[in-house]
């Protein structure tokens, strides 16, 4: 009972991605903005976005917010903060690396698949 109580309020998906990815996810209906503090569950990353800004949003999505169940991040953006993505080991939110229009998915770089391979001794 206690375990379901801890995660029952995780209703949203967070997205850190390029403009096309975030736009597609918003059109799919994942967008949420809190009226009280204008906090969003998405971040558009472009060439001018600093790694520190991406890290700040990643930290906020993973540690600061208790309403996110999944965080989707473009794999090429995850590479910019790879040490943060690789060291995140909590069950919630689940971190999923996804491809973008201009950057195909590379399973060799995916932190989840790396962990699975280590578990199976590969």
How would you sum up this structure, described in words?
By secondary structure, the protein is an alpha/beta fold. It has one domain: Rossmann fold (3-Layer(aba) Sandwich), CATH 3.40.50.10580. The chain is built from six helices and four strands. The chain has helices at residues 2-7, 19-28, 51-64, 75-78, 82-87, 111-119, and strands at 12-17, 42-44, 68-74, 94-98. The chain has a four-stranded parallel β-sheet, with helices on both faces. The longest helix has 14 residues, at 51-64.
Ordered list of secondary-structure elements with their pairings:
Layout: H1 2-7, E1 12-17, H2 19-28, E2 42-44, H3 51-64, E3 68-74, H4 75-78, H5 82-87, E4 94-98, H6 111-119
Parallel strand pairs: 1-2, 1-3, 3-4
- The CATH superfamily turns out to be ATPase, V1 complex, subunit F
Q: What is the average of the pLDDT values? A: 86
Can you give the helix content as a percent range? 40-55%
Biggest sheet layout: 4 strands, parallel
Organism: Tortispora caseinolytica NRRL Y-17796
Pfam families: ATP-synt_F
Family: Belongs to the V-ATPase F subunit family.
Main location: membrane
